[in-house]
Amino acid sequence: MKLVVMMFFVALVAGKPACNKNTKTGCYKGRLEIKGICSNYTIKLLEGSLDTAQIAANWTDENTGKSYTNVFGLGSPCTFPPSINEGDEFYFMMDTSKQLCNVCLAYYPTPGKKLAIKVVPKCK
Fold it and tell me: Which pLDDT score, from 0 to 100, does residue 51 have?
């Protein structure tokens, strides 16, 4: 009986799917909602979990009146790829590196919560 239980346990542990082994911790999926002037970008969190202290659960663009959920403003304009356009989905991780670059000061509304992110090829 002990042998059967032990074989079941080994089969259970060995049978775990391998797909989760390569998932990068802290990797998220987002979509560029608004590509405003001078890197005033609004990004929607599509996959992954961030608490509402980091992102805006609800936000309304004062120029268009359109409402968004689970969004944040881009806090890392220096490294965000210019090839990403409104509606494009991409993967990202938090970026803690210091960034110094010139960004024009023209205004377009963004959520008050900003995150510095680094775009990555995939989370898996």
Answer: 81
